[in-house]
Amino acid sequence: MKVKTSDIAITAVMPSQYPADDLPEIAMIGRSNVGKSSTINTILNRKNLARVSANPGKTRTINFYIINKEFYLVDLPGYGYAKVARSDRAAWGKMIETYLSTRNALQEVLLLVDIRHTPSEDDVLMYNWLRQYGYGSIVIATKSDKISKNQQQKSMKVIRETLGMPTNAQIVPISSLKKLGIDKLWGALESLFIE
Ligand code: GTP
Ligand code: MG
Question: Which InterPro entries does the UniProt record give (predicted)?
């Protein structure tokens, strides 16, 4: 896909603030610090559109980015980070759950996992939940620059097995640091719109 325009459209914490048009949405979910915001910047070829931080818990709202005035990429707060205050975690959990379980415009939810690690219990729970809602056809394995090609293959097998991904679901390794895997990810995203 050729990205002609990309912009932050809306920052939301509750349904009344979600976009009012009916454009399709694709959301990114995963542990804090896994690289959701970085992935959005990378595939849009933007440096600082989505705010990135080395400290987990950077993204705290539901951020809708409008692409080519045609669809939204949606950045969500991460889960699973112990140092975020319990009350914040509960509020984000509710905010994310409300969005994921009620949003009609939501076409697909991409689970991001760190390619170096076996998916956590939270990741597995999230993936099962996504499958129940008909999502989960694409998993992104982030930070592929951190390990060799050979290790990547092994890790992707472990990720696929641990999450219990069906054979028709894809894992796409990407590196925001080295800008690797972007075309493959766009290919996977485009296939969502063609079906
Ligand atoms: P929250 O908003 O806290 O949920 O985190 P996030 O998932 O949006 O992660 P973010 O994009 O903010 O990135 C977290 C950290 O990982 C930052 O220090 C990034 O620079 C780093 N990072 C993200 N992608 C990559 C990558 O492909 N390779 C490497 N080496 N580092 C990455
Ligand atoms: Mg973020």
Answer: G_ENGB_dom (IPR030393), GTP-bd (IPR006073), GTP-bd_ribosome_bio_YsxC (IPR019987), P-loop_NTPase (IPR027417), Small_GTP-bd (IPR005225)
* Domains in the chain: ranges and CATH: 6-194 (3.40.50.300)
In short, whether 152's Cβ falls inside 6 Å of ligand 1 is no
Task: Write the burial class of residue 92 (CB in 10 Å: 0-12 exposed, 13-18 middle, 19+ buried).
Answer: buried
Residue the block writes with tokens 């976009």: 19
Quickly tell me which residue has 């080519």 as its tokens. Answer: 68
Alpha-carbon torsion (35, 39, 40, 42), positive or negative: positive
Ligand nearest to the CA of 81: 1
Which residue has the CA at smallest separation from atom 29 of ligand 1? 143
The pLDDT tens digits of the residues spanning 129-171 come to 999 999 999 999 999 999 999 999 999 999 999 999 999 999 9
Give, rounded to a whole angstrom, the gap between the first and last alpha carbons of the chain: 15
For 45-77, the pLDDT digits (tens) are 999 999 999 998 889 999 999 999 999 999 999
- Choose the weakest-confidence range: 9-23, 83-97, 136-150, 171-185: 83-97
Ligand nearest to the CA of 77: 1
